[in-house]
Amino acid sequence: MKLLAITNRYYFISITVFFVLAGIVLFYSIKYQLTEELNEQLKTEQVNVTRIIEKSDSLNMTFLLNDNMSFRQAGPEISFKPVLFDTLKFDNVEKENIPYRIIRFPAKSRYQNYVITIQSSKIENEDIILSIFLSLIIVFALFSIMLYLSNYYFSKKLWSPFLKTIATIKSVNIHDSEAQFAIDKTNVQEFYELNSSLQQMIDRIKRDYRRMKDFSENASHELQTPLSIIRSKLESLLQSPDLKAREAQLIDQALESTVRLSRINQTLLLLTKIENGQFVQKQDVSFYEVFEKYLEAYREMIIDKKLKIKVEREGDFSFAIHPALADVLVSNILNNAIKHNIDNGWLTIKIHPEGLDIRNSGLPPEYPPEQLFNRFAKGTHSAEHLGLGLALIKEIAQSYDFEVQYNYHKNMHIFIINAFVKAI
Amino acid sequence: MYLFCHRIQCIMKVLIIEDETALMEDIRNFLETEKIMVETASDYKEAMAKILDYEYDCVVVDINLPKGSGFNIVNELKSMNSKSGIIIISARDSLDDKLSGLNLGADDYLVKPFHLSELNARINSIVRRRLFDGYNIVTFNEIAMDCSAQAIKVNSLPVMLTRKEFDLLAYFITNQNRVLSQSAIVEHLWPDEIEFAGSYKFLYTHVGNLRKKLQDAGCSSYIKSIYGIGYKWGES
Q1: Is residue B196 over pLDDT 70?
Q2: What's the pLDDT tens digit per position in A226-267?
Q3: Residue from the list A266, A331, A382 with its beta carbon closest to the beta carbon of B199
Q4: Which of B121, B235, B119, B225 is nearest to B182 (CA)?
Q5: ipTM exceeding 0.85?
Q6: How far is A352 from chain B, CA to nearest CA, in Å?
Q7: Domain A283-423 in CATH 3.30.565.10
């Protein structure tokens, strides 16, 4: 939800509450005022009528009668305080009930006691209240519209530095060590603080990133030199003529471990590089060709395991990718499919324009499929491999928005790469 | 019998420029035979002095050197129009370095750590290519290998080998009389991306095929299996 919509909503709720409360207060106070006004009128009337009756010599008071005044004669003992009350009377002309304010009081002439009732229609008062409410609603509507519009324009203006900042942050690519990300200066205190802290943060992240990159690269390179010395020493040792078989094997095992160590080192470095997005360059790669290349490279392993290979080509899967990563991807897929295969097994590679579908025979995985993509997850079927192959595949797939699925079903490993997500 | 160049039996002169003396000594000991003479330099200045002094058949240069970069040495060699083959060895496995090294005119780029037998194979292959271009025959007793045509003859009769078998044979002959571990052979024959550390069962079949083809052609048995370790090529 947009900030503007949220502020509008809150504004609307608060002015509605305000207008409702104001309406209620206004309603009661106006109503009270109007009733008071009527009461005053009726009381004045009462004073006048009382005075007229007291002064009148006439026996008959019918001259007093009019539409709004009526009286009846009362006994000599009548005495009560004047009462004021509301009532509804049916009007024959309007055919509806009309509210009246009524005063009833006793009055004395020289000859007779009376109970006098004076009424005053409240219909005008109600009209007044109604018209006040109508104007209130109109004011409310106008106010809302004005608030909405001004909010819209002012917000846009007020938040523009913020939007600009967001756009700048979006464009930040920490892998690009050359580019500078200068966030605009602004006069608004809060945005100024936001921008300067963001600027500091970006600079810090870039610095840390560069340090981390340097560190992992340096660490890995620095490791390679002692490793190569160890390896050359062991290899030289292996050449000495009077070596016993047992000693030679020990040396060879140590040598083998240096090979593995440097491979782990290189693969971790490669993973880091992919994670850091350091493989920027892209070119269209035909995966069919890459598969052909690596099927040839793995020929001896395939022959050794007596695997039946089938390549189904439903068009080519061609994709803009760093060629070295395409190589890594395909060689690791084949590596897995061959290494975890059984003797006399099979391997089917289906290449279609949206992706790859690789199925092969093999023993059931010892890990749940989702864990297989983790680094150093490996089963006991072949303890020697590094356990980084699937992690590499996942990392490459992620950096190119491929979808990777792995499934195991009845002695069949199914490995699917789908790039249609990106293609659309 | 050792490596034969065409016409004359020549001695290859190789310069190793490497600041890690421990590594340098092993390289020297491994390479040095009757056919290869090794000179060494452990820093930039010494290396420069040596390349100005003599034209080597092959210069193996480390990029990170005290007092200078190996790239400058490659540059210098190229500006001298040197005929030396150049192999860069580096701890940096970065594509950029590899490309800039090769663009400068280096013939090969080898990432540390490497097998000494691998370095030996690459030096031999480069020297053969550069010096005896078009007439690139390696012989070992009754075997004659034509490296440019990728064909071999045993007792003057052609023997059909697959590419990998040919490469394996060339690797064996280049590194004759040396113990070659399985991992060294696999790393030489298969591309880097292929990770088969530890499971070299297929290599046994592969070597077996080559052995059989050679024997069928009447070749003596030169491949000696060293149980659990690898192989050694040589006259028994």
Answers
A1: no
A2: 889 999 999 999 988 888 888 988 998 898 888 888 888 888
A3: A382
A4: B225
A5: no
A6: 24
A7: yes
